[in-house]
């Protein structure tokens, strides 16, 4: 296209109309982008998951300027999948929007229907789950654990599976019983480490993680959120250790565990002092 040529994409109204037109153009088998043309649902799915995590990361960091951009990237994923589906005659972006709109209206009868709004958020959550259960039954998802997406992050899926089981009474009475189970699973992991195969060690490790997720549920702690916070804390403290080493003219590879551990303890002490002074 010559410099003086005008691409008609610029004449499409900005916002959703232009974004839909852009994806249609990118996927055009003659004039589109070779990379975009080659993609399918499976190849794009990892990007969709990545963009969702980047949205969550921006929210966690309260990076509101970044959040606008990250939400746009996530919306692009929805449009990309919808464009591929339309090409195959499966559905379109418009049908996706209609379907989710209908779902939200159906799941909020206390807002869009005749039911009373005079109930607590907890009761609304119970009602929401009843409506979803009825929807699953309509899709022949008759088992308690049907419909819990397998592609969810493992800790998040563990909690959802446990919540489903708890609704039919399959749950420990409280956190104390879960803690007892953690001690049991930790002992089995030690035994596996000492005498069993690597596959059996992995199985026992998975059992321990699963029970840890259950403990978080009983303590009303989201294990995914808690682990992200722990990751952020580890990153912050290790960066401080590196900064301290740099001030000494060293790199981590030029230090040893004893020195770095002492610096780590000092970073922790400083953090506690700072919190106490607030």
TrEMBL record:
Q: Which domain of life is it from?
A: Bacteria
- Can you supply a Gene Ontology BP term from the record? response to stress
Residue ranges of the NTP pyrophosphohydrolase MazG-like domain? 39-112, 179-239
Reaction(s) this enzyme catalyzes, per UniProt: ATP + H2O = AMP + diphosphate + H(+)
Q: One of this protein's Pfam families, by short name? A: MazG
Asked if Hydrolase is a keyword of the record, the answer is yes
Which InterPro entries does this one have?
MazG-like_dom, NTP-PPase_MazG-like_C, NTP-PPase_MazG-like_N, NTP_PyrPHydrolase_MazG
* A molecular function (GO) term: ATP diphosphatase activity
Alphabetically ordered keywords of this record: Hydrolase
CDD domains noted in UniProt: NTP-PPase_MazG_Cterm (cd11529), NTP-PPase_MazG_Nterm (cd11528)
Question: EC number(s) on record?
Answer: 3.6.1.8
Task: Give the similarity note.
Answer: Belongs to the nucleoside triphosphate pyrophosphohydrolase family.
Supply the name of the protein.
Nucleoside triphosphate pyrophosphohydrolase
- Organism annotation: Pseudooceanicola albus
Gene name for this UniProt entry:
mazG
């Amino acid at each position: 296209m010559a410099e003086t040529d005008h691409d008609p994409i610029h004449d499409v109204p900005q916002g959703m109309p232009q974004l839909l037109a852009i994806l249609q153009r990118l996927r055009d088998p003659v004039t589109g982008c070779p990379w975009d043309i080659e993609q399918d649902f499976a190849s794009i799915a990892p990007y969709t998951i990545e963009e969702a995590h980047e949205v969550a990361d921006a929210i966690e960091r309260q990076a509101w300027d970044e959040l606008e951009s990250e939400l746009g990237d996530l919306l692009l994923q929805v449009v990309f999948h919808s464009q591929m589906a339309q090409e195959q005659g499966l559905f379109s972006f418009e049908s996706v929007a209609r379907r989710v709109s209908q779902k939200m209206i159906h799941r909020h009868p206390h807002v869009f229907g005749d039911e009373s709004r005079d109930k607590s958020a907890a009761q609304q959550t119970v009602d929401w789950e009843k409506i979803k259960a009825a929807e699953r039954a309509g899709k022949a998802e008759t088992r308690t654990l049907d419909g819990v997406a397998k592609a969810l992050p493992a800790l998040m899926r563990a909690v959802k599976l446990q919540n489903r089981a708890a609704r039919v009474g399959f749950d420990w009475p409280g956190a104390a019983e879960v803690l007892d189970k953690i001690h049991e699973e930790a002992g089995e992991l030690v035994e596996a480490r000492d005498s069993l195969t690597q596959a059996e060690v992995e199985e026992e490790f998975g059992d321990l993680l699963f029970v840890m997720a259950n403990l978080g549920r009983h303590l009303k702690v989201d294990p995914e959120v808690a682990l992200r916070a722990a990751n952020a804390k580890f990153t912050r403290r290790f960066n401080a250790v590196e900064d301290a080493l740099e001030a000494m003219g060293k790199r981590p590879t030029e230090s040893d565990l004893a020195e770095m551990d002492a610096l780590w303890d000092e970073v922790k002490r400083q953090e506690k002092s700072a919190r106490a002074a607030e």
